[in-house]
Amino acid sequence: MHLPQPDPAVLSNKERIVRRLREVLPEDAVIDDPSETRAYECDGLSAYRCPPLAAILPRTTAEVSAALRICHEERVPVVPRGSGTSLAGGALPTADCVVLGIARMNRVLEVDYPNRFVRVEAGRTNLSVTGAVESDGFFYAPDPSSQLACAIAGNIAMNSGGAHCLKYGVTTNNLLGVTLVLMDGTVVELGGAQMDSGGLDLLGVVCGSEGQLGVVTEAVLRILPKPEGARPVLIAFGSNEVAGACVADIIKAGVLPVAIEFMDRPCIRACEDFAHAGYPDCEALLIVEVEGSPAEIDEQLGLIRQIATRHDPLEFRESGSEAESAKIWLGRKSAFGAMGQINDYMCLDGTIPVSALPEVLRRIAEMSRDYGLDVANVFHAGDGNMHPLILFDANRPGDLERCESLGAAILKLCVELGGCLTGEHGVGIEKRDLMTVQFSPQDMEAQMWVKDVFDPKWLLNPAKVFPLSVSAGRRAA
Amino acid sequence: MRVSDEAELADAVRAAKGPLIVRGGGTRDIGCPVAGAVIETSGLTGIRLYEPGALTLVAGAGTPLAEIEAALASEGQRLAFEPADWSALLGSQGTPTLGGMVAANASGPRRVQAGACRDSLLGVRFVDGAGTIIKNGGRVMKNVTGYDLARLMAGSWGTLGVLSEVSLKVLPAAETSATLVLPGLTVANAVAALSAALSSPYDITGAAFLPGTGALVRVEGFAGSVAYRAGRLETLLSPHGEVHRAENGAALWRQVAEVTPFHGRDGDVWRFSLKPSEAPEVANRLGQQVMLDWGGGLLWALMPEGTDARALARPYHGHATLVRAATETRARLSVFEPEAPAVAAITKGIRARFDPRGILNPGRMG
Fold first, then answer.
1. Chain B contact for A196, CB < 8 A?
2. Whole-angstrom distance, CA of residue A450 vs CA of residue B353
């Protein structure tokens, strides 16, 4: 993975740049000591690291605006950072950049139940948005696995999803408005408390633009009344194919569970060793969760049982209590931790048409043998968003490179079968050089037009999303 | 000029010497008047892919909406956002197409629960103003690869490109539904009742106010669940007034979606997208008959011809569209809400890149 050569002019102007930032920001909001900037050298894709020129931690939209105006004048690249949980390297710095951390902007500004929205500063963590409204019976729906730590700003940048988006959608479906600071310091409001906005859907294109169009400082988020209850079932199968067919049948039958999670044997075994959730010994396992009143849940689970029975499950385990529900989810929720105990791993994020599930799993198994690296699969089956975990040993020379090339091969397979490179993590640097597999030069050109408009000098997170060779002319401009 | 495939469409746009009026079924003549040669997409038809088990449908942009809805119904599925036919409201002929629906981001009453058309949009293919074919998104339900231009195309009224193909997420149709009616409420009381319903855990799929009928609340799903939720809602809403079950629920929701109260009546039709709690005050300031959808977040008003409803309605958070009016009124009052200068500059920049010669429905969005 390559990053552009740092701009020598910026490096040599460091002292002036930092001094100017200190003029508009409080003393504790500018970090330039190399021992401290190190804290910002990487995000969740920790295989890649590079300390930035400086990091700034503004507390207000006005401070963000003033700082960006200076960086714009000094032609300093800016890498926005929420909580730094990106698995795609979305917040990875370059040596000549200023990291703009939004974490100190974490207040709830407005809670409006009659209109069912909250307005928050974008550094607020995902889970604490729900935390602010749950005692009144509401919640914020998108629930990425990192929700305890990840910031709304990062969720908006990557258009994050989660386990429950089969029913509730991803960030873009739950985002009503943003306050966005452009690279030149201009503050714009897009959307608002109303359900849709007039004019072009600029909010829609800002969501998922990986911090390349502007810095989101505030967000208006739709909140929903909490369902009366939820209950999972665990269904075990003797093969991936049968489990995949069962998923399609559940969806076709008109039941819309809030989540359908799929785990294959390597994943089940690792989770079992780690979390002792009592999962059955099987090839494939589904966790299906439905919501409603107890009677509504019974009605839906009855239907799911009928469908599953037609596929001869090895086991159909219905939860009878809160404790049993928690146990069913325990293994799934600790999947990533379990993998981390055994090995270094790389988590992929391709999406495939649900109908291609059995074929993709079969071919991933073949590739895993060819590359000599184990792959465990855990994913959101209802929407085809796969998370193959490739296990490798970072201390063994050549293993990371082999892992990356297996990852690339799997993602190419996803695209070949009608899917895409990333379902919810974003492109970042991780999938940047694979963009040409999914998009023609014209397709990427049209996307880059949007960045040309929002950030004409290409200073915001410039080395991400588009292959460096594709964005070269613009970044140099 | 009628094109029969995407390549012909690209050729036609590339060869155009002047402004083009992009036309699907021609049922939604909304926007500032445009002069130019008509380019029709009605030849770009056909369902390319429909996988009920994956909740996915891909079809040519010129495919009639009715054909899509029939194909979905045969598998017990539907477009969740309930796109409405506005031809009776606008007095237009023809049949709505898939591309027109996306270009207008046309969404009906279920928008409160299932999102708008743009929320079900998985991907697009389109021809930009230079005649280049561009694709974005795809056919899978979760996709964050690159920028989301599909959503940018939704509601862009053919001003950034001519859609040739769209892919949509579809959903199971409900087994049954129930509609509760609270007759005789004021606008303010109706909004309060709708807000109470939408803040309940009973998964409301419609929350409207139909003049002459009252406040309407809809639940959908499996029979047992619908019976349960409708019963709970009756209790919940009883402090707001008399509650009864509608026998003609489907017809009432069609009236809401198609804005039936204003059909064939003189006057201009305005559509306000608002914070729901603002609807009663805006209705008061307008001083005319209104219809509400989306729990009050969407307000339709029938105004005397030539009235600047925005000026009367202020202050409000949101935006207003002049949906139906004489040509000179539309030119004078701006059909779409004027944008703040910084936003307008971004819009202008995006138009200049997607349509460098300014030939696609020029000026239609103001």
1. yes
2. 8
Residues 295-354, chain B, touching A (beta carbon < 8 A) = 297-298, 317-321, 336-337, 339-340, 342-343, 346-347, 349-350, 353-354
Domain harbouring A158, CATH code? 3.30.465.10
| A122 and A93 co-located in one domain | no
- Cα–Cα distance, A2 to A429 (Å, whole number): 9
A24 and A73 assigned to the same domain: yes
A138 and A87 share a domain? no
ipTM: 0.97
Confirm whether A299 is domain-assigned. yes
Digit-coded pLDDT (tens) for A173-201: 999 999 999 999 999 999 999 998 889 99
Nearest by CB to residue A197, choosing from B139, B319, B346, is: B319
Give the count of domains, chain A: 3
Tens digits of residue pLDDT in A297-318: 999 999 999 999 999 999 999 9
Put simply, whether A441 touches B (Cβ < 8 Å) is no
Q: Cα separations (Å) of A327 from A247, A287, A317, A321?
A: 22, 11, 11, 10
The answer to whether the beta carbons of residues A210 and A171 sit under 8 Å apart is no
From the list A138, A227, A252, the residue facing B52 with the nearest CB is A252
b/e map A115-127, b = 16+ CB within 10 Å:
bbbbbbbbbbbbb
Q: Which of residues 128-187 of A touch B (CB under 8 A)?
A: 137-138, 158-159, 161, 165-166, 169-170, 172-173, 182, 186-187
pLDDT in tens, A456-473: 999 999 999 999 999 999
Here the CATH number for the domain that contains residue A83 is: 3.30.43.10
Q: Does residue A172 share a domain with residue A262?
A: no
| Cβ contact A418–B139 (<8 Å) | yes
In a domain, residue A264? The reply is: yes
Could you give the percent of chain B with pLDDT greater than 90? 96
- A259 plus A290 within the same structural domain: yes
Of A62, A194, A103, nearest to B274 by C-alpha is A194
Query: A355, B54: Cβ pair inside 8 Å?
Result: yes
Both A326 and A236 in one domain: the answer is: yes
Tokens standing for residue A445: 């050109």
Question: Does residue A320 lie within any of the structural domains?
Answer: yes
Give the nearest chain A residue to B154 (CA atoms): A201
Same structural domain, A120 and A166: yes
Q: Is the pLDDT of residue A476 over 80?
A: no
Spatial distance between the Cα atoms of A230 and A322, rounded to a whole number of angstroms = 10
For residue A257, the domain's CATH number is 3.30.70.3450
Among candidate residues A39, A73, A103, the one where a domain is terminated: A103
Write down which residue in A196, A225, A254 finishes a domain: A225
Q: Is residue A317 part of a domain?
A: yes
Q: Averaged over B128-138, what is the pLDDT?
A: 98
Distance CA B293, CA A446 (A): 35
- Measure in Å the smallest separation between the Cα of B337 and chain A Cα atoms: 6
SS3 B6: helix
pTM for the model: 0.97
Q: Helix crossing, A14-24 with A61-74: angle to 10°?
A: 160
**Burial class of residue B188 (count of CB atoms within 10 Å of its CB; 0-12, 13-18, 19+):** middle
- What's chain A's average pLDDT? 94
User: What pLDDT score does A335 carry?
Assistant: 82
Residues A190 and A252 reside in one and the same domain: no
User: Residue A477 pLDDT more than 60?
Assistant: no
Domain range for residue A76? 8-103
Judged by a CB distance cut-off of 8 A, whether residue B152 touches chain A is yes
